[in-house]
Design brief:
five-stranded parallel β-sheet, Arc Repressor Mutant, subunit A, 5 strands, Rossmann fold
């Protein structure tokens, strides 16, 4: 199996349920891997793989809710769909707060599960793109020298060149040169574009 291909991961301690979802995935043309426990999934978990995770909330051993929480703490980008025959309101709320795209009650219809799986795949695609974008911005930030980083922060604070020159104890010509270097390394052409480039990353770091 191509590990780069988005995959439906199923965690359910009922073999018949796993078999049924696998058959549905096959009809959708989606690769599917099944696990009979949360512990088994965690042992095989690879954060680089794309896809959707279908979790039964009531599992033997670690619960589905605990698994979802553990994955959320790891920064998992898999789109999550929760299923349960006995979902109570607090558990449902907690699951949605942890990022699940849907909570389906057993027995669910195939079209309900199909829609939820597609929504989870789409969420995973967006999260992976966002993560890759943030990683690229961070790589560019890391390429700045200490002086360039100080200048960038001054630019973002709206300080004029003459004050930046005084703060850094350099000439305005040096400020111009450093500004040009920062813009080139950050792949931007203005202070506004620079702000946009780092705003999402800094907002994420602050969460």
């Amino acid at each position: 199996m191509n590990e780069a291909e988005p995959t439906l991961f199923v965690v359910d301690d009922e073999p018949s349920a796993c078999k049924g979802v696998a058959a549905l995935a096959l009809s959708m043309g989606i690769p599917c891997e099944t696990f009979l426990s949360a512990e088994a999934f965690l042992e095989a978990y690879d954060p680089s793989r794309a896809g959707c995770l279908l979790i039964d909330l009531r599992l033997k051993g670690m619960s589905g809710s605990e698994l979802q929480g553990r994955l959320a703490a790891l920064g998992c980008t898999l789109g999550v769909v929760l299923i349960s025959a006995y979902a109570d309101v607090p558990t449902a709320v907690k699951g949605m707060q942890n990022g699940a795209v849907a909570l389906l009650e057993k027995p669910y219809r195939d079209d309900e599960l199909t829609d939820a799986i597609r929504a989870a795949f789409e969420l995973n695609r967006r999260l992976r793109e966002e993560k890759a974008r943030h990683a690229e911005v961070q790589r560019r930030l890391d390429s700045l020298t200490e002086r360039e980083r100080r200048l960038m922060e001054a630019i973002l604070a709206g300080r004029p060149n003459r004050l930046i020159a005084r703060d850094l104890s350099v000439s305005q010509r040096t400020v111009d040169r450093l500004r040009s270097s920062v813009f080139k390394k950050m792949h931007v052409d203005s202070a506004v574009a620079l702000m946009r480039a780092v705003a999402d990353l800094w907002a994420t770091d602050g969460d």
